[in-house]
Amino acid sequence: MDLKSIKKLTFTINAFILFLVFGLAAFFYYCKATFLLWFSIPTAVVYVLGFYLISREKLEHYVRLVYFWLSLYMSVTTICLGYKLGFHLYCLSMIPIIFYTEYMAEKIGKKKINAVVVSGLIVICYLLSTGYASFQGPVYEVDNSIAGLFWIFNSAIVLFFLIAYSGIMLGMVHDYESRITDIAHKDRLTGLFNRHYMMTKLESAMDEEGDVFVGMADIDNFKQINDKYGHNAGDYVLEKLAKIMNEECKGAEISRWGGEEFLILAKGDAEKTGYALLEKLRKRVESEEFVFEKEHIAVTLTIGVSTRLSGQTVDHWVKDADDKLYFGKKNGKNRVIVHLEQ
């Protein structure tokens, strides 16, 4: 989640809490809880100020202010009305959210909040306020039926926040796991799978039923492209070639095998399916315009194709495709080789 998304979420939550403050103020008026009615005024000011802090991206100041005031608000309402209305339950949502906030502050480069210390202070406020209400009784008496309704209402709010933030955290975990997986499995420049990932795919393919083939593709004269046009041009060729491969070899697994080598894994036999697919790719690359900084670069591929054989190891399977690639390089380049010619 980026800073913009966090601001939007925080703004929405702040607006929701401010709405609750006005609703509770009306309830305090109904209960003739004069002190709490007046206490609602600085509470509303806090959340109005919150909009300013959010807009100025002072999220760490906003969090500190809100957590201080929420703890105070929870304590005061519990002492004044008793614990039967459930205001003390807000600490249940505050504690996990502060750990989430500390985590997000680190991710977006803001000043971290010590979640353990803040949680400890919330627990102290909870124990003191509920303890006082238990031994001394509430300052203002509220009808039991109304108290029961407010217990349900406050419980629902607390559970809503717990579920919502748990969902957000789970989504973030999935997102970061996906990014970590991409980093581990994909080549940074081309976005294709890397050699390590492809090896696991090749090993899995050894157990599949039906024909499976690999194509070992190499960019012809790639060293000369780097020498003549520069390494940035070489990177451009690799990136564009990866895009073309994804377009032409849909359904296949494609990896950057080495510097300018690519390995393509797909179902079918090398002689028919493999040759047709990779010959189409070769022709597309040959006809494609590669233009870098107004320089037209001629790009072609030589590809060796090999069908998986029974009892064959992954190394021998890949070597067979590599041998055919080498043969194509020695005999004209810009070719798809399925059989080694005698």
Shape: elongated
Q: How many extended strands?
A: 7
Helical segment count: 11
The percentage helix is 55-70%
- What is the structural class? alpha+beta
In spatial order, strands of the major sheet run: 2-3-1-6-7
The poorly predicted ranges are none
Order of helices and strands: HHHHHHHEHHEEHEEEHE
Relative strand content:
5-15%
The whole-number mean of residue pLDDT values reads 88
Our Rg estimate from Cα atoms comes to 33 Å
Could you tell me how far the N terminus lies from the C terminus, measured between alpha carbons in angstroms? 59 Å
- Main β-sheet, in a few words? 5 strands, mixed
Q: Tell me the domain tally.
A: 2
Outline of the structure:
It is built from eleven helices and seven strands.
Protein traits:
five-stranded mixed β-sheet, alpha+beta, elongated, Alpha-Beta Plaits, 2 domains, 342 residues, two-stranded antiparallel sheet
Descriptive report:
This protein has helices at 3-30, 34-55, 59-81, 90-107, 115-136, 144-185, 195-205, 222-229, 231-248, 270-287, 314-330, and strands at residues 212-219, 253-256, 261-267, 290-292, 295-297, 301-307, 336-337. It is an alpha+beta fold and 342 residues long. It has two domains: 3-185, no CATH class; 195-337, Alpha-Beta Plaits (2-Layer Sandwich). The strands form two sheets. It has a five-stranded mixed beta sheet, with helices on both faces. Strand 4 (290-292) and strand 5 (295-297) form a beta hairpin. The protein starts with a helix and ends in a 5-residue tail after the last strand. The model has no long low-confidence stretch (mean pLDDT 88).
